[in-house]
Specification:
Elements (H helix, E strand, L loop, with lengths): L1 E3 L4 E8 L2 E8 L5 E3 L8 H14 L7 E8 H8 L11 E12 L13 E10 L5 E7 L12 E2 L4
Length: about 160
């Protein structure tokens, strides 16, 4: 798929797993440059991490899972405090799974029920796919506000 753009210089870095492709385009008005892929090459690896994590938190078969590449600061602001200047440094993958989740591992008073939610949120390190931040809630964040969402299929 090609995208028409008006630009003089364009530098595009696409990171997929542990590899990165560097595409440089010098053009004048009307030239076409390749668009970034709508689904990353390592989507199966992302799926394995997400679905394992979902199963550990009460829902082995979420209704749907979507993700987007984003800046770590934007990701933290999406889930936590929008005024926070902090965040996970660098690029991350933000994942939202929809289902019925129970956080059995949460520390809580003896008689309290574990936290539950219909949305599982994960922030993954781009290079290692390690979980940097996570939580459950009953509200769905807008992934399109921080990146281009893509579907994460069942492994």
């Amino acid at each position: 798929m090609l995208v028409k753009r008006r630009l003089r210089y364009r530098l595009l870095v696409v990171a997929c797993g542990s590899t990165a492709a560097l595409v440089a385009a010098v053009s004048v008005r009307g030239d076409s440059v390749p668009a970034a892929p709508s689904t990353p090459a390592n989507v199966d690896e992302i799926a394995a991490v997400v679905y394992r994590f979902a199963a550990e938190n009460g829902d082995p078969d979420p209704a749907s899972v979507s993700a987007a590449y984003a800046d770590g600061v934007a990701a933290e602001k999406l889930f936590y405090d929008p005024k926070s200047p902090n965040g996970v440094p660098g690029q991350v993958i933000v994942v939202v799974a929809r289902g019925n989740f129970t956080v059995y591992s949460a520390s809580r008073p003896r008689a309290a029920a574990p936290p539950t939610g219909s949305e599982l949120h994960l922030v993954l390190d781009v290079a290692t796919l390690a979980v940097k931040l996570w939580g459950v809630s009953n509200s769905e964040p807008d992934l399109s506000s921080i990146g281009s969402p893509f579907a994460v299929p069942r492994p």
